[in-house]
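Problem 12. The chain below contains 147 residues. Write out its predicted structure in token notation.
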Amino acid sequence: MEPYILQPTSEYPLFITAKRYWIPEFEGNASNPSAQTLIVLHSTSFHKESWEPALEDLFQLASQSGNKTVIREAWAIDCPNHGESATLNRRALSEPGFARCMCCCSPHGFRCLMTYQFLARNMHKLFADLFLLGRMMELMWTFGGEI
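Solution.
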């Protein structure tokens, strides 16, 4: 497990926290262009570590002999107002544009600056920062409980 913190910028004023997960059996997949990088996002009122049991099971299955799934690594990402990200963003989240944001993002910016477009820009910045752009990625996102 390897933690990562994306620092705020003028374009994206919030911290984003992530964790990289991999197992030694995946080290040989690093140069394989068909190996997948898994991106996992949580739903409202959860945090990135919620994925750890599922990733552990998935990694165990993927590392069994005869399995055709090729995984390079997985990245679990906190929404800016959840988990470790929320702690780092405490001050920014009290500002008027973010103070009403209860969920990870809002479809149309309803009373909240964290729209899907805002989150997409954040993900692009994070992927670029982590040199993940251009890799084969699989996105898994739990949507439960969003209002």
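Discussion. The chain has one domain: 2-141. Students who got a different answer should revisit the alignment rule from Section 12.3.
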